[in-house]
Amino acid sequence: MNSEELWKAVLSEMELSLSRASFTTWFKETLLVANNNGIAVVGVPNGFIKEWLENKYNKQILNIIRKHDQSIREVKYSIGNARLAVAPQRIEMSQILRDRIQEECPSDSEIDKITNLNHRYTFESFVVGVNNELAHAACVAVTKNLGKIYNPLFIYGGVGLGKTHILQATGNLIHSNDPTKRILYIPAEKLTTQIVESIKNRTVEELKQRYGGLDLLIIDDIQFIAGKERTQDIFFGTFNELYSKNKQIILSSDRPPSTIPALEERLRSRFEGGMIADIQLPDYETRLAILKLKGKEKGVVLDEESLSYIATNIQKNIRELEGVLNRIAAFNQIYNKMPTIKEIKQLLTAYLSTPYRKPTPQLVMKSVADFYKIHLTDLTKRSRRKEVVHPRQIAMYLLREEVKFSFPEIGLKLGGRDHSTVIHACTKIREGEENSETIKQELTLIKERIYQSLDTN
Ligand code: ADP
Ligand code: MG
Q1: Architecture in CATH for domain 361-456
Q2: What topology does CATH give the domain 3-85?
Q3: Which of 43, 48, 54 is closest to 82 using CA atoms?
Q4: Ion ligand 2 — residues with CB < 5 Å
Q5: pTM of the predicted structure, to 2 decimals
Q6: Does 3.40.50.300 match the CATH number of domain 117-279?
Q7: Residue whose CA is at the smallest distance from ligand 1 atom 16
Q8: Is pLDDT of 394 > 90?
Q9: pLDDT of 398-454, one tens digit each?
Q10: What are the boundaries of each domain within the chain?
Q11: Residue 230: which residues within 8 A CB-CB, separation 6 or more?
């Protein structure tokens, strides 16, 4: 079965289990772009869909894929390689992109067999900005005082902001400083699988011994152990053993320990007992510096105007910045020249739907009203009824986040409210998004509606 047939099989099964609207929203523009070394890479049109597939459908997708191809262990999602309405020239381009993705899936030689670290990630290739300087400083400090200063070190931040990079860079530097140190890098998902297998095979003790003998244990995306009680239980034992021997533990997560749902209290307090550092969205200067550095690595040399255009328009995810550079490199390969600024604008439109298909304020407000089953005018009226206050705050937050309105603009749009009221609402909902599953879910569902309408119009 080739990639296309395999993905078709997945799509037809997913279609059966989903509503038409959901299926269209999440799967319409997807494509299997690579399949090697046990990793299947699915191309998706934007970060929102990527996150949704990762969080909600990954398991189901993997199950279906594995029914057809046992060798696949993992499914990854990659932005910007989605099924586009391609003109002949574009097909050539997408083929090149496919090849590139194949190249980008870490080959076995890049990954150290013992430590599981990828040599590609170093501090030299990591740009430090105000958004990540604390995390960077903490990691560097750990390389100099293994197990003695910040233990555990807990790094958190959003998708594609450099957690894996900085964790691995730390491991790589410690390894090159002292190759006798026993180091292991492992994503929490893999650790969970290992634990489950070891329970099945009655090899839990061996597993514990293996982990207990390390000098440095790095676990990426620890939020994955949420709700997995057996994993947490066994991990807790290993954590304590390493900790009591002053062995270093470094963890990453997409959110702080306090907001990881279904995490046992004893683990939460352990995580909070060390050093916690966050990575925020990179500011413009940092994005520019990353573009320059990564551009050099990929042989993409752009003029200031083009760099500034890209750095201005792609803000939320460094992986997307890299995606654009890949796209430009592919362009260069085909046409034997760097794209002009006009061509870059075109490339970006085809590549990233989100920033260029910003929803209108009307669409956001209508989606909010529809979701809460209230009248559109309730959002702008003066009423303080509870049933309308919450939706109104949600609308304010989404106008800020999705439409990028300023606080005064939002106030004006929603019935002439003071901008301090808007700031208060946005802060409240942002906190809610971090701390309350209900609010998070509501926001996701409303965004689903918004982007679905954008897709069909
Ligand atoms: P996360 O694990 O937080 O989702 P990654 O570490 O995988 O993010 O980063 C995504 C991509 O962006 C990687 O290719 C990484 O090298 C790059 N990247 C992230 N932050 C930086 C940075 N500060 N400097 C250079 N590259 C970065
Ligand atoms: Mg990561």
Answers
A1: Orthogonal Bundle (1.10)
A2: GMP Synthetase; Chain A, domain 3 (3.30.300)
A3: 43
A4: 163-164
A5: 0.61
A6: yes
A7: 165
A8: yes
A9: 999 989 899 999 999 999 999 999 999 999 999 998 888 778 878 877 887 787 677
A10: 3-85, 117-279, 361-456
A11: 195, 196, 199
